[in-house]
Amino acid sequence: MKQQQSISKLLPVLFGFFIMGFCDVVGISSNYVRQDFNLSDTMANFLPFMVFIWFFVFSIPTGIMMNKLGRKKTVQLSNIITLAAMLIPFIQYSYYSCLIAFALLGIANTILQVSLNPLLSNVVGNNQLTSALTAGQFVKAISSFSGPFIAAFAVLYFGNWQSMFPVFAGITFLFFLWLQWTPITDTSEKSSTSSFSEVWGLLKDKTVVLLFLGIVFIVGVDVGINTVTPRILMERCGIPMEEANYGVSVYFACRTVGAFMGAFILSKFSATKFFRIGMAIAVVALASLFLVSGKPAILILVGIIGFSCANVFSIIFSIAFRKAPEKANEVSGLMITGVAGGALIPVVMGLAADLWGNQSGSVAVLLLCGLYLLLCSFINTNSIN
Q1: Fewest C-beta in 10 Å: which of 60, 129, 149, 154?
Q2: What is the DSSP string of 292-351?
Q3: What's the pLDDT tens digit per position in 143-176?
Q4: What's 127's DSSP letter?
Q5: Looking at residue 367, which CATH number applies to its domain?
Q6: Which domain holds residue 13?
């Protein structure tokens, strides 16, 4: 009976990671908006910027607010904002309405990521946290994988890609109700409130700095591949956008498989070694993207990158949690601030692509991110085992 109660609490929290995956739709959205409004790579990549810059602005305030409001209530606040964001592009479609909608989505996703990860620790034990976080990333990957298919369905049956947003709004509302009806004891509620200086003070620890930058670059790789894959396929293979967008699904499909396998492997295998092996493979695949031009080869490399990087975020996050378990809310706020890498890296990629004259400039930026992550897996290993 106790195990059934635990599962009944775990399932709605894990489903929250599906909502978290909605932010990844910005990759294909930016390509549709780029085409519809004839934008440059730099201008189109401001859509991911509008999603992920809020992780830098709101992550730490959310962690502080969560000490007063509680984890579950903070998750529910994110759901309300997500509902509003999902309706704007459907009601009014323009470049600026998309910027506003994705800004709201970014704010909501920031609040969700800061609060949902600690909420998960309320329903699983510390020894199960890495595996549970990886399972959450698996659910998020399913959501991300579904995005291009939902967009294609919207175009086919409704004549425009924006029709996918009411679908996301409906799913968000169902999650809101499910979580509301699930009794979860919130250990963070009424706890002491930290200041900004105390949260940023966590960066005095060199290992925390290493992990924080790791979050910046792994999210940068994730959002960057999501954004650039269709453009590489269109540029090098001459295929239309609707077909090229399925390249994103290949990435997320392999990432989904990687996260699923990681949930089991990480319960038995060293997270640090797993991190090293995955990033070594990812770096080789990123470097190889400079050399290939055929569609099968590009998709294979993109799939390898997705599979290899699938568990890096959850590994880094769980290590950070274990570094200061008594400050889980503050650590979560600080680490999620690093998700702002999803804003920074695509803009740098867009500038590099415009200067380079093709998408090889974007690939070069992603390769530098991958090299840092590989280095990250080898530095200070005594502290992050």
Answers
A1: 149
A2: --SHHHHHHHHHHHHHHHTTHHHHHHHHHHHH-GGGHHHHHHHHHHGGGHHHHHHHHHHH
A3: 877 877 787 788 788 878 888 888 889 999 999 9
A4: G
A5: 1.20.1250.20
A6: 2-384
